[in-house]
Amino acid sequence: MTSVASLAEVLLTLDDMDLSGRSVLIRADLNVPLVDGEVADDFRIIASLGTISEVRTKATKTVVASHLGRPTGVDPAFSMHPVAQRLSELGAFEVVLAPGVVGPEVTSVIASAPAGSVVVLENTRFEPGEANNDPALADGLAALADIFVNDAFGTAHRSHASNVGVAHRLPSVAGRLLASEILAFDRLLDGPEQPYVVVMGGAKISDKLPVIERLLPDVDLMLIGGGMCFTLLQAAGFEVGASLVEEDMVEVVERLLRSRHGDKIVLPTDVVVADRFTPDAEHETVDVNSIPDKWMGLDIGPDSTRRFAGAVKAAGSVFWNGPMGVFEWEPFRAGTEGIAEAISASNGYTVVGGGDSVAALRILGLGSSISHVSSGGGAGLAMLEGATLPGVAPLLRPDNQRLE
Fold first, then answer.
1. Which residue range is the domain that position 280 belongs to?
2. Catalytic: 313?
3. Residue 389 lies in a domain
């Protein structure tokens, strides 16, 4: 198998394909949050716009497929209509929403779509065969176009009909966004600038343990905050009150802390604790050896934030995934803000992935000062674990024999 560090060298991209006179199906990641039927955060639409706009100017027909949320069957609340509308506004071109994902009605809409327009298929997860890569659905998607462009890094770690299935049925290449993601993570995997500092947060250590174990030998420091830090603190012998702890992970984490590279793991020395899990809870900052019984940690404390921020600012390479606390609530936001500001101020190569971390950057207006803001959380972690992503594998030169 091709090593992850060489993916960018063998990845087929739009530069390898002549789109003139062809119809093109783009798998984008337009999975954006909706509030009251409107797009609440258009980061992923903006990130996909470069590929969609480029293809639209070259191809005879441009069709875009994406999932939205996690519907169970056809659900109007998860229709792509508001996404299609926002795409049209941002791109300043006509967008036609298809009545479904595959089938004669969809084919008819594509055939009659005005020149220069973009056809957006309905939510791919309205189709029961999407998640299990159903061959019939993949056949139906492949019948819509001559060429497939996968630009959905956010789903590249999933083997679905709309990314993997169709890629095995059409000449296929990576879009600009997917290619940029591969380049960014390659840089972290293949000789990153030192010191290399990784910041991990979020709720559960079980979600991040594989990538922590994979990266630990290669990093200089692994800074851990968020709810996941309390499982590590308990494993290190601290009493953590009512804080979130994955009891079944404590023994595993104990071994990790005692391992050869365990001393690279840096845990908070102080935390912000609350008497209940609400935004208006009584809260205070305490040392980690003084967490009150029945109180829960909801953010790293100011001393920990300063130490973490200092390490980040001095780093040659930084990867951040996961908030330091419940940043949606103002009393528990300071840790995440401090890390975001430090990464923004770093002179090193900085990559931020994961929905909550990216959302924090956008709230603070700091995204433009980051070297690479990733559109995918799970896919980025899978790459750093050393995996060749299912959605990327069919786009590699040794595996793709269908370029004509």
1. 184-384
2. no
3. no
